[in-house]
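We now fix the convention by which a protein and its fold are recorded. Think of the row as the fold of the chain written in a discrete alphabet. Here is one such record, which you should read through line by line.
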Amino acid sequence: MDFKTMYENKLTTADEAVKSVKSGDWVDFGWCVTTPVALDAAMAKRLPELTDINFRGGILMWQPEIFQIEEPAKHMTWNSWHMGGIERKAIAQGFSFYAPIRYSELPRYNRDSKTPSNVAMFQVAPMDEHGFFNFGPSASHMAAVCERAETIIVEVNENMPRCLGGFEESIHISKVNMIVEGDNPAIASMGKSAPATAVDEAVAKYIVNEIPNGACLQLGIGGMPNAVGSLIAQSDLKDLGVHTEMYVDAFVDIAKAGKITGKKKNIDNGRQAYAFAAGTQKLYDYLDNNPECMSAPVNYTNDIRQISALDNFISINNAVDIDLFGQVNAESAGTKQISGAGGQLDFVLGAYLSNGGKSFICMSSTFTQKDGTVKSRINPTLSNGSIVTDTRANVHYFVTEYGIVNLKGLSSWQKAEAIISVAHPDFRDELIAEAEKMHIWKQSNKR
């Protein structure tokens, strides 16, 4: 089969390709750094002619041009599997909506969906000699999307890293309907993380002390998980493994410090498994054609059965707030959507099932409002409308700059006591008083 001839026959312009989108269509717009660029610009020109276009995507790294047309709500909705700052702003304009789902369920959802994508368009790495376009650092759920999409349009970007895996990390040209060659923009960078704060470092120290040699790591996005990663890179830990949802810069630092060998992993021995990646150019350069790194679909990386099969699994994630019952909200500020369910609960559950495994939910004990008022992130109950990401029955370790507590199996009064013990001292008396009102405090509790 002459793949080059097939390529030439399917090559078209972005403007011609987007003519395949019709009013009422569902359009998959890639994921994170593989969100299209040239096709986005062409789609923005076409959108004013259309109505009721339903885009699906998530973790946008830049503002798409389709968001910038006049009165976008008249022509489209953006349905996000995981929100970011750009998408949060679009909510107020009436065209962006969150689609709640456990991230690990996305492949099955796409395969079983009664509304598969009419058109899927996304960035890929250049075609290889075998006729495959690599999904770059976003294997995630893209193979499942492509299985059901009626029309598949790939936008080739020569700067897209080729992320090796073994399954569902690429699509063959025979399954592609149209090929567009863009301007090869640099892969979107999250930028360098802000320097770790004293709070970040305090939390990180508590967690690193709980990590054994040979542990398998999952790090969430954010300052605290990155601070943990930096501390691991400077530690004496050795023979660590990686099995994570999101691959972040911290893993590159740990690997280059010689801490990651993966030789203790019960499955995927010697390989770093991940569903998607986003970070700085350092990260993309590290992943490109690196056989040690394993790009895999999210229903594999986030499968509780796979996570639990890895001994000494260590899961580290952020949260927005927690209440005295131990309910964790990691995705909203009251009714305001911030991010999404993601895979946090999968890793909390999987880590606890792992032999020697531990999951850590970490946060600063307080935050400062715009007017300078300091508020506690630990509250008697979650704010009205807040989403419970991790139920009180599932949380294992909870960490703030004031300490680390194991909440698993505690009675309600024990749990309230443990959580208050790591709250900011200025709020502890108030929290105790509220715990007493809610009948989850014993007179014998510590004060």
In short: The chain has 15 helices and 25 strands. Residues 198-437 form a domain with the Glutaconate Coenzyme A-transferase fold (CATH 3.40.1080.20).
